């Protein structure tokens, strides 16, 4: 089994986020803000967190939600328990 690269993991995160926020992948950049740029609410943030936990088999504390404002932040939050 090969280890996924940062780009591959980021692409998976992007797919999950776009699916939950119901937006096209080309609308999201690594630094576009979910709430301000894509009208995400706190319920969507929790859905994203749950989907990421399931996909990457990690546990993410809800106290990390404030850091999950864009793809870069989400990647950082997931990378810690996943040891990337």
Question: Could you tell me how far the N terminus lies from the C terminus, measured between alpha carbons in angstroms?
Answer: 16 Å
Radius of gyration: 12 Å
Query: What's the shape?
Result: globular
Q: Round the mean pLDDT to the nearest integer and report it.
A: 94
Q: What is the number of strand segments? A: 0
Strand content: under 5%
Please describe the biggest sheet, giving its number of strands, its sense, and whether it closes into a barrel. Answer: none
Q: Helical segment tally?
A: 4
What is the percent of helical residues?
A: 55-70%
Give a short synopsis of this structure.
This protein is mainly α and 84 residues long. 57% of the residues lie in helices and 0% in strands.
What does this structure look like?
The protein has 84 residues and is an all-alpha fold. The chain has helices at residues 6-21, 34-38, 42-56, 71-82. Helix 1 packs across helix 3 (42-56).
Write the layout of secondary structure elements.
Elements: H1 6-21, H2 34-38, H3 42-56, H4 71-82
Helix pairs in contact: 1-3, 1-4
């Amino acid at each position: 089994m090969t280890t996924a690269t940062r780009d591959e993991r980021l692409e998976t995160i992007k797919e999950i986020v776009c699916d939950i926020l119901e937006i096209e992948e080309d609308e999201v950049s690594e630094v576009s803000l979910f709430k301000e740029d894509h009208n995400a609410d706190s319920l969507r943030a929790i859905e994203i967190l749950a989907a990421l936990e399931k996909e990457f088999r990690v546990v993410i504390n809800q106290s990390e939600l404030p850091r999950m404002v864009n793809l870069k932040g989400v990647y950082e939050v997931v990378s810690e328990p996943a040891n990337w």
